[in-house]
Amino acid sequence: MTATWCWERRSRNYGNFGNANQWTVNAGLSSLARESTQNSADARIDTPAELVFTFIRLDGSRRRDFENAVGWDVLGTHLRSMGGESSGAVTAGQIRAGLEAVEEQDSLVLLRVADYGCRGLTGPEFPEDGVPSSEYGNFIKLCRLDLFSGKDEASGGSFGLGKAVYWRFSRLQTVLFNSVLSEDDAVAGLRRNRLFGVNQGVVHTTDGVGYQGRGYFGDPVDDDGVASIWEDERLTHKLYLDRRDPRPGTSALLLGFYDPDRPDLGGGELADLARELREGIEENFWPLLARGGMRVRIEIEDGPHREEIHVDPEETYTELVRALRRFDEGDIDEVLDEPYSVVVRDVPIEISRRRTGTRHNRFTHTAKLVVTASDKQRDSLENKVCLFRRPEMVVQTIDRAFESQTYHAFLVAGAAIHPDSPPTEDIHADDFLRFSEPPAHDRWIPGPRGKQASQANLTAHYVAPWVPNLRKIERAVLDELLLLFGAPPPPAGKAPESVMKHLRFLRGEPGGKGGGVSAPRKPDTQLVEWTVVDGCWDVRFEVKARNRAEGWSMRPRLALAGFDGGLDTVGWASLDVVDGGGEIVDGELRLAGKDRGRFVKVVLRGRSTAELPIPAEESGVDVVLRGTGPLVVVEEGAR
Amino acid sequence: MTVRFPWPTLETDLQLVIDEVLVDGVPLDPSLVDGERQRVALDDTSAWRELRMAVSIDPEALSSVAGAAAHAVVECTPTNVRIPFPLDTVTGAGQITLDRDEIAERFSVRVEAVATVEGRLRHVGAGPDWTAVIDRVAAPVPPGMPPFETVWIDFRDPAAPLGARSMPESPTYMDLQGDPRLLLNAAVDGFQHLLHANTAQLERRRLRDLLGADVARYAVTCLFRAAAVEVSVDDGVVQPPERPVYRQVCQAVADRMPGIGDVEELYEKLHAARDSALVAQEVWGAADLAIAALSGRDDALVTACREVKHA
Predict the structure, then answer these.
(1) First and final CA of chain A: distance in angstroms?
(2) Given the DSSP bridges, would you call strands B81-86 and B149-153 parallel, antiparallel or unpaired?
(3) Do A503 and B208 lie within an 8 Å CB cutoff?
(4) Which residue of A has its CA nearest to B261?
(5) Most exposed of A82, A142, A503, B223 (fewest Cβ within 10 Å)?
(6) A338, A340, A336, A298: which is closest to A317 by C-alpha?
(7) In chain A, which residue's Cα lies nearest the Cα of B182?
């Protein structure tokens, strides 16, 4: 049989300009890591399963050979036609831009995502009338249907959208598959190298003929079908879809791999892409990898250059991996007293009543909050609580830092608590959480308005309420963290520094001036000369004040000190400025601010009245300043 | 304030040195005599009957006024005692001898100098006080310590004062029945953690700073109002409040208040405010503003507003 590309003739009744599902998948290699790893994790039949990402760069003759094998003549023609529709469709524009990029570059970049120890593309070839949907295998769900998940309980996805990740990261919206099945899943006795390709294009016209958007690479059968090609090892080899491991699973080959977030980087440094992919896998799947559910490897085939990276989250997230393993062994500490010590706290999650499928009443599920003390190595998950359930992918994190300690933590919920034999209620809880997740599977806890998680699945399967149940998860986690790390009670009698720092001016000697932290603010005065003349005090004194724009006004007064320490202020017979920039107006000293200088100074001379309560010769004297304030110039007529 | 006299006075203050303290003939631990802060701690000593203190000044400090002589003057307000002890004009040394019955709580020792000027005995100089504490309760607030006790208590607790129990949701209550105590309500969820969150960041820090300053403002306001009640007039002379912490608050508020030259003027206005609504409005309005600035509330508010402006 000859593999070729086929598109159905355009329908009079309906036209599809691209697969909307791909827009539910975020761009960025972290998203690629999440979605593709989740797809394989859901399909596991072995433990550990294996997942291998291979970046392949083809140049020169290798590229030409590949293009011949993939039927580039036909595919390219149809892609160009699709690009011609770009004025009316986003995907068409994408395809046009992707095609231009691929044809302009010397090398073609492929990404192969291959899993081993997984189900593979099982099941019949076509979703025909006599085949119930319960018998659709993975092949039909992946290659021929949109929005059909049909995933089991306690699996990763629930929307049937995760597979869109493959096309999302192909410039040409084209992906080839090669699958090996187990003996039990053989289709008409066939199980090796089930080869098939899907182009999720747009409605287009080629050579005057109108075609549907979606095209298939395989064996044309009947008038309108394209079927898988089985056991053509030569073809699979030419298409770089060899599977080196005999275990069942699926290899997906993304043609013209790129990151939609950075379309100019697709053909760039493969090592950088590999590193980012590894970081995304570790951050999102450290529980799965730590428990040995899957091994992940990243390879680079760049001409003669070969590189292999084994993804090991224990290098990056040492605390979390060790804590999870200790939790699984039941090896728990009483207190967090040193790095890697582990404590566990119960977090209740209210599960709503389910009215479909495996029905149940509402109940309280006990999730486990596992907290460990951090080491000195910084990483991206410190001071965060990773939330995960059975697929062992981190759904979201609750971020909360405490002043007293750096920690790592995770909330293990649902069937992930006892993964080997989860109780029925744990499975029910896992389902509830799965249905609470939006298409991107990145949230349980509803966000504020505008960032609400999708409620569609919960509405379909459960009886309200569920929003408060989900919100309480965060509150319960934070309460437990606060008990662990909240500020310890202060020693008895210790006053809060946040209050006392404002009262330091009271900490001086009793009766003296408050020990204020700031510099003196009010003007100060000092007697320079003092003498008694004809029963009157004759004084010369200096007034010194902080220079400020608004200046100062004040009323100098002569104060007589009696033997009891009391002061009597008396009037002036005369008061004049003898040096400096001030002026006396109706007994008020006015000091204007200067352009420069820290202080303003003025020297005055004054003589007291003769009528004094204490004879001048018997009294002590000082000058005090009264009514100190800013210099306010009052205009005529103003109040 | 430095009062000047029409007769000659010494050019500099006289510094009194306490060379030795004997309690019933036994030398006091020298570490209990703090020359820097000018304090003598006698509160840890057991019951005694006689106290002797060897004191001295630099005799050269008297030379600027002819015939000046110095005395070490002991004053004790609780026992209404003021006793001068002469200092030798040549050596500057002298001895203070006190019987236990003559003093209580605490007393001060200060050097004062006199001289005969034109046939009249005149005060010509003095020096800063030493404070000797006999009763720890009467001890001045050590530097660095808060000026009043702070207590965390549930305001619904029967042990809480009636004023606090009458407002069980209130976060703060200043108890002025005895020595001032600032009560903070432990029943307000998160309040204690927040005020003690010394390394808080971002939003928590801003909230902590605002709340801490607001609590300080409340405390200072209560102390100031209580101080105002204690301002009195005795023989035509306005008397400051009795309690040292009240005097400190008034001094600090006077330093900040617009329209007030010094704390003496503040006392005069507080007294006048009792009889004049106009003066009362002016002085209390200005005092509230000064307290808000003094307690850091204004700074905390300005900082928080600036930081969240573009949040």
Answers:
(1) 105
(2) unpaired
(3) no
(4) A626
(5) A142
(6) A340
(7) A495
Would the CA dihedral through A52, A55, A61, A64 be positive or negative?
positive
B260:A628 CB<8 A: yes
- Interface touch B261/A628, C-beta < 8 Å: yes
Q: CA nearest A498 in B: which residue?
A: B212
Q: Which residue has the tokens 């049989």?
A: A1
CB contact under 8 A, B255 and A522: yes
What 8-state DSSP symbol labels residue A67? H
B16: which DSSP letter?
P
- Report which of A18, A22, A38, A54 is spatially closest to residue A252, judged by C-alpha positions: A54
Q: What is the DSSP letter of A106?
A: S
CA distances from A456 to A149, A154, A191, A439, A461 (A): 14, 18, 37, 10, 9
Task: Tell me if B264 and A567 make a contact (CB, 8 A cut-off).
Answer: yes
Instruction: Give the β-pairing of B39-41 and B130-133.
Output: parallel
The complex scores an ipTM of 0.77
Q: What is d(CA B267, CA B247) in angstroms, rounded to the nearest whole number?
A: 10
CA distance B283 to B298: 19
pLDDT tens, B19-68? Answer: 999 999 999 888 889 888 888 988 766 688 999 999 999 999 999 899 99
Q: Give the other-Cβ count within 10 Å of B310's Cβ.
A: 5
Distance, in Å, from the CA atom of B270 to the CA atom of B209, rounded to the nearest integer, reads 31
DSSP H stretches of helix in A486-591: 497-500
Can you give the pTM of this predicted structure?
0.64
> How many other CB atoms are found less than 10 A from the CB of residue A144?
17
Q: Using CB atoms within 10 Å of the CB of residue B201, give its burial: 0 to 12 exposed, 13 to 18 middle, 19+ buried.
A: exposed
> In A, which residues are within 8 Å of B184 by CB distance?
496
- Contacts with A625 from chain B: Cβ below 8 Å: 261-262
Token readout for A356 is: 């479909």
- Which residues does A173 contact at the CB level (< 8 Å), separation at least 6? A18, A19, A91, A94, A95, A98, A167, A199, A200, A201
CA distance B311 to B304: 11
Cα distances from A26 to residues A151, A162, A214, A434, in angstroms, run: 21, 10, 22, 19
Comparing CA positions, the residue from A383, A393, A412 lying closest to residue A324 is A412
Residue B131 distance to chain A (closest CA, Å): 10
pLDDT tens digits, one per residue of B96-144: 999 988 888 889 999 999 999 888 888 899 898 898 988 766 666 666 6
Q: Are B221 and B289 in contact (CB under 8 A)?
A: no
